[in-house]
Design brief:
The complex is a heterodimer.
Chain A lengths: L2 H5 L2 H69 L5 E7 L3 E5 L13 E7 L10 E11 L2 E8 L1 H51 L15 H51 L3 H32 L8 E3 H18 L3 E6 L4 E3 L2 H17 L6 E8 L3 E8 L31 H11 L3 E6 L4 E8 L1
Parallel strand pairs in A: 7-9
Antiparallel strand pairs in A: 1-2, 1-5, 3-4, 4-5, 6-8, 9-10, 10-12, 11-12
Helix pairs in contact in A: 2-3, 4-5, 5-8, 6-7, 7-8
Chain B lengths: L1 E5 L3 H13 L3 E5 L2 H10 L4 E5 L7 H10 L6 E5 L4 H9 L4 E4 L4 H17 L6 E4 L2 E4 L4 E4 L2 E3 L3 H12 L4 E3 H7 L11 H13 L8 E4 L3 E4 L4
Parallel strand pairs in B: 1-2, 1-3, 3-4, 4-5
Antiparallel strand pairs in B: 6-7, 7-8, 8-9, 10-12, 11-12
Classes of the chains: A alpha+beta, B alpha/beta.
Chain lengths: 455, 226
């Protein structure tokens, strides 16, 4: 299946929505971990600084500035790694004691918390480190800075940030792949149903949607659709049977009626009465012909009749049909042209194929006005033969072309002309029986009927 | 004429027997296959009308048995099975003609007449046919009416030949399609009428007495008495 059409499927869109939801939850979760960890560590640092300040403040209270300086020196010497940061300055940041060489540029406050970067080499090698410190004024212009190197804290923060970024990326990628895979398998099953439905709509009512046998919701859908199709076929068969049965059951009484009329035709004396009865007889004949045609079609369609592999000369057959009907065309002053390739052989039923040729030629003559033209063509191709009847008549509008093969269907424009609407149904039934194909096309003006038969 | 009817459908049989008797035929009727075969073998008939589906013995078996004994009496098969295959099977089995039920009585009579006529003329080889002043030379394939030569297309010739061979008898459209065109089918339109009227214009036009007549509700007849 194409990616574009896959992206349009509802299952993929569902997967997409799910992916967004999932990613959001992952983001919130990792965000919380980051916030909680970083917050806790900062708090710890601040507490350590505060505790140190309390200690220093006590020393200062007891021993004054000198005492503070000596304590600072002692503390600095105790911490060679430089985790703790101290700087005690006189007015204008002149260093008095501590392990920082100069007052950090970013820490230009009198009193409060600051974050800054350290470039100095205290206990570590060269690198720039992040630091956090508390500054306050001791006395006059003297300021004290007590801080901690928060390099580790920053490292942990970065790690968590990286984890969040990667986690999000991986989550999104996995969700996308999963969504495509999930929707592809669903889409595949739906596509199977769609394909078969299209074939069924095209006329192959015997097809059914395959089931996996797992009994899942798709299987249930397939089962329901199949049952619906069975029901449709049943109903169609029912309708057909009813009409066929009517035709069958009415045929006998109708024949009796016809025979009685025929008897009356002989016994009645007056000429006018005879005329009327003769009209009634021919009406009865037409009805009988319709019933017979209906039953023949029914037998062809339902009888499962197989064409005997009997070779017959189709050229001869088409010539005979054309010759039979040519007279009819001449009576309507139509140009009747025959272009029949000689010695074209097919296997088929002679009488039924003759019926096809006659019905098509008869239609062409009937629906073409006087002075029109008709062309009967037969040609042989590599794998099949083509029998074509083209006329310059009223044609069949495109939207009616499928319907004309239905029983009793008559094109709107032709309802005033004689006919029972069974001719093309008969043709279609015979062609189907011969595994051939029939197509209608516009011959501008008029109609071309193309029949292809396998060789 | 003596006619044997083997038919188990009471309505059809009664109708047949009554109709045939009205046409001055002597009719024997039985509904049973075995009885029918016995009659066919023991009595002498001019024509037999046999249904295909019968109790105790199938119609086709009767026909095959009758033919096996060398009996050449014309047999008309009557059947509800109207498929081409059934037809072919019936004719190959020894039947001379096949009529699908329900049938019109005129059709039956016309076919019976055709069979009876064939029975009587089959033996002799005819080289020419004539009806009134219409003459057909079957060897030279020429047609003359009086002194005037008539040009016919091959199919028209066959049509006229069939009509002349059955002169004085009603010939139905279906019979013409089957015999002259050699196809068993349903011709939508009365295309046969067109061919008949063409033939008529060739053989009757300009002559005082028309020979080719239409029999309403039945078919055509070629006859000198109108």
């Amino acid at each position: 299946m194409k990616l574009v059409s896959l992206l349009r499927t509802s299952s993929f869109q569902l997967a997409l929505v799910y992916m967004v939801l999932f990613a959001t939850s992952v983001f919130i979760l990792l965000g919380f971990i980051y916030w909680a960890t970083a917050g806790y560590m900062t708090e710890q640092t601040d507490e350590t600084i505060e505790a140190e300040i309390i200690g220093l403040a006590e020393q200062y209270k007891r021993q004054g500035v000198n005492g503070l300086i000596s304590v600072l020196r002692e503390r600095v010497s105790r911490d060679p790694n430089g985790k703790s940061l101290y700087l005690f300055t006189a007015r204008d940041h002149i260093k008095l004691a501590g392990n920082l060489s100069k007052w950090p540029e970013k820490a230009q406050v009198q009193d409060g918390w600051v974050n800054f970067e350290l470039n100095e080499d205290i206990g570590w090698q060269g690198n720039t480190h992040a630091a956090r410190a508390r500054i306050f004024v001791v006395q006059g212009g003297m300021q004290l800075l007590v801080g901690r190197d928060v390099h580790d804290l920053m490292t942990v923060k970065r790690l968590i940030e990286r984890a969040i970024n990667w986690g999000m990326g991986i989550t999104l990628a996995l969700a996308l792949i999963g969504g495509i895979m999930m929707s592809r398998s669903t889409a595949k099953r739906i596509e199977v149903i769609n394909q078969i439905s299209r074939k069924i709509m095209a006329g192959n009512l015997s097809l059914r949607i395959p089931r996996r046998g797992t009994g899942d919701d798709f299987d249930q859908l397939a089962e329901n659709l199949n049952q619906m199709l069975d029901r449709i076929v049943q109903l169609m068969d029912g309708i057909r049977h009813v009409s066929d049965n009517i035709a069958h059951d009415l045929r006998t009484p109708l024949t009796r009626l016809r025979n009685q009329l025929e008897g009356a035709l002989v016994s009645v004396e007056r000429e006018e009465d005879r005329d009327q009865i003769a009209v009634a007889v021919s009406e009865a004949d037409q009805l009988l012909a319709t019933f017979n045609a209906l039953l023949r079609i029914a037998r062809l369609e339902t009888g499962g009749k197989v064409v005997k592999p009997e070779s017959l000369n189709l050229s001869q057959l088409i010539d005979d049909a054309a010759e039979l009907y040519e007279a009819l065309a001449e009576d309507k002053s139509q140009r009747f042209k025959i272009d029949v390739q000689e010695n074209v052989w097919v296997s088929g039923d002679k009488d039924l194929l003759f019926q096809v040729a006659c019905n098509l030629i008869d239609n062409a003559i009937k629906y073409t006005p006087e002075d029109g033209g008709i062309l009967v063509l037969l040609s042989e191709n590599k794998d099949d033969v083509l029998f074509q009847v083209t006329d310059s008549g009223i044609g069949i509008p495109e939207y009616e072309r499928e319907k004309v093969f239905q029983r009793f269907y008559r094109v709107a424009k032709s309802r005033s002309l004689p006919g029972n609407g069974l001719g093309l149904s008969m043709v279609a039934a015979v062609i189907a029986m011969h595994k051939g194909d029939i197509a209608l096309s516009d011959s501008e003006p008029g109609l071309t009927v193309s029949v292809t038969l396998p060789k | 004429m003596r006619v044997l009817v083997i038919e188990d459908d009471k309505d059809v049989a009664a109708y047949l027997v009554k109709g045939l008797q009205e046409c001055d035929h002597v009719v024997d009727h039985t509904i049973d296959g075995k009885d029918g075969l016995l009659l066919a073998a023991s009595e002498s008939y001019d024509i037999m009308i046999i249904d295909r589906m019968l109790p105790s013995m199938d119609g086709l078996t009767i026909i095959k048995t009758v033919r096996a004994t060398g009996n050449q009496t014309p047999i008309l098969i009557l059947s509800a099975l109207g498929d081409v295959d059934d037809r072919v099977e019936g004719l190959r089995g020894g039947g001379d003609d096949y009529l699908t039920k329900p049938f019109s009585f005129t059709e039956l009579l016309a076919r019976m007449d055709a069979l009876l006529r064939r029975g009587s003329t089959q033996s002799e080889q005819v080289t020419s046919l004539s009806v009134a002043d219409l003459e057909m030379d079957l060897l030279a394939r020429t047609v003359k009416r009086g002194a005037q030569k008539i040009d016919l297309q091959p199919r028209e010739f066959r049509l006229l030949e069939y009509l002349m061979r059955h002169a004085g008898q009603v010939v139905t459209r279906t019979m013409l399609l089957e015999q002259v065109w050699d196809y068993h089918f349903d011709p939508q339109t009365n295309v046969i009428d067109v061919h008949i009227s063409r033939l008529r214009s060739k053989i009757d036009k300009g002559f005082e007495k028309p020979l080719l007549q239409t029999v309403r509700g039945a078919g055509y007849i070629l006859s000198e008495n109108s």
